[in-house]
Structure formats: structure tokens, C-alpha cells
Amino acid sequence: MGYHQAGFEVVGVDINPQPNYPFEFHQADAMTYPIEGFDLIHASPPCQAYSQSVRSTDSKWVPTRGKLEPKLIGGIRERIKHQPYVIENVLGAVPYMDNPVMLCGLTLGLVIPRHRFFESNFNIEEFPHEGHKGYAKKYARENNIEYRDMTVTGKGRHAGTSDRWKSFMGIDWYMTQPEIVESLPPAYSKYIGEQFYEST
Ligand SMILES: C[S@@+](CC[C@H](N)C(=O)[O-])C[C@H]1O[C@@H](n2cnc3c(N)ncnc32)[C@H](O)[C@@H]1O
């Protein structure tokens, strides 16, 4: 959505069906889908392989150390690196990324930090990042929101979570909670799209 807001025509590819995807969509393997002719390729490989923890089958939070999910960053980079590209992921993936910049939601006008990391072969200007320890707790208290709802990770715990998460993320179309959790807020990709225009 952010690339659309920045003026791109967007085509999405995912190996799983994405019935709520708001643009042209192809269910396909990103490792084989034809990528010639696109101005910019954006890849958000599954972050679970790189995340600090996931919910195990007995509902406990456990560190994965990348054992449960395939790490796809290296493979997709080999495929797309000859075209303008962006690879997005979470903090745990930084050691697998090539010189990524960090974008913070607060800097982009959101109320959640949701730090995400972006590797690219064009310049993405990184904002100076000021500490915001305690911000989310304070925001939750002042707005009568449960603090744990500020993270937009894992399962929603009560009715109304989806709407709250969507408002934190800047999402105004229908998405399920698991889809919201997986998604990159449009403000990030809009900024990156604008940076792409500036650098070309
Ligand atoms: C972090 S999510 C992407 C979220 C998306 N960028 C957004 O902002 O809504 C990672 C996605 O990669 C998909 N995926 C995993 N392996 C894939 C593959 N080989 N080809 C295409 N998609 C794949 C998963 O189904 C999942 O939807």
C-alpha cells in the first residue's frame, strides 16, 4: 500500500493465498516468479526464522534460533540483486542483511516504534533515532489501551484488537489479525518508494 501511495503500480506475489491483498496478486514462489521489467522489487521474507521467539505448539514463547523456518534472505538477494531492490526484515535478521537502515514507526508518524530493517541497492536515508523508552507504556496509559496491544505481535487477546492494531499500523482496509501481524505499515514502504524516486 505504501508503494501505491508513493505512486507505484503494485504487483504482489506470495506463495500462499492473500485474499485481502488490495492490488494485482499472483500466488507463486518468489524464487521462480519472473521479475524482469519491474522498476523495483521489494521482498519481505518470513521473519519467523530470524525473530527472537515464536509461539510453540504448547503455547509457550520459545527462541527459534532459525530452526523452524527457512532463512530466505540470502536466496532472494541472489535473485533480485541485479535490479533495484529492497529486502525488509526484523532485528534478528540484521546479521544476514547487507548494511540495512532502520526505520522507526514513531519517526514516520505512527504511535508504535515497530523497528524494521531495510537492505537496498539505492540510498535510503535513515532518520536520527532518539530513544523512546517508556513511550508505548505512557501512550497506552493515556489512551486507555492495554500495553500489550501496542506491540502488534502474536494473537489478539480481545474484541477490538484488529481495529486498534490497524489504526496503529495505518491500515484502513480489511485484514485478519495474522495478516496485520505479518505486515509492514504503509508509512514505511511509502517512504522507501519516495527515497527510490529521489535516488533515480
Ligand atoms: C513477512 S510476510 C510479508 C508481509 C508483507 N510484506 C506485508 O507487508 O503484508 C512473509 C510472507 O512470505 C511468504 N512466503 C514464504 N515463502 C515464500 C516463497 N518462497 N515465495 C513467496 N512468498 C513466500 C509467506 O506466505 C508470508 O506471507
Task: Quickly describe the structure.
The chain has six helices and eight strands, in the order αβββββαβββαααα. The protein has helices spanning 2-5, 73-80, 135-142, 161-169, 177-182, 186-199; strands at residues 11-14, 24-27, 41-43, 54-55, 61-62, 85-89, 101-103, 116-120.
Mean pLDDT across all residues, rounded?
90
- The rounded distance between the terminal residues' Cα atoms is 21 Å
Structural class: alpha/beta
Uncertain parts: none
Major sheet description = 4 strands, mixed
CA gyration radius, whole angstroms: 17 Å
Q: Percent of residues in beta strands? A: 5-15%
Which molecules are bound besides the chains?
S-adenosylmethionine
Helix content: 10-25%
Global shape: globular
Number of helices: 6
Number of E-state strands = 8
**Strand numbers in spatial order across the main sheet:** 3-6-8-7
Strand/helix succession: HEEEEEHEEEHHHH
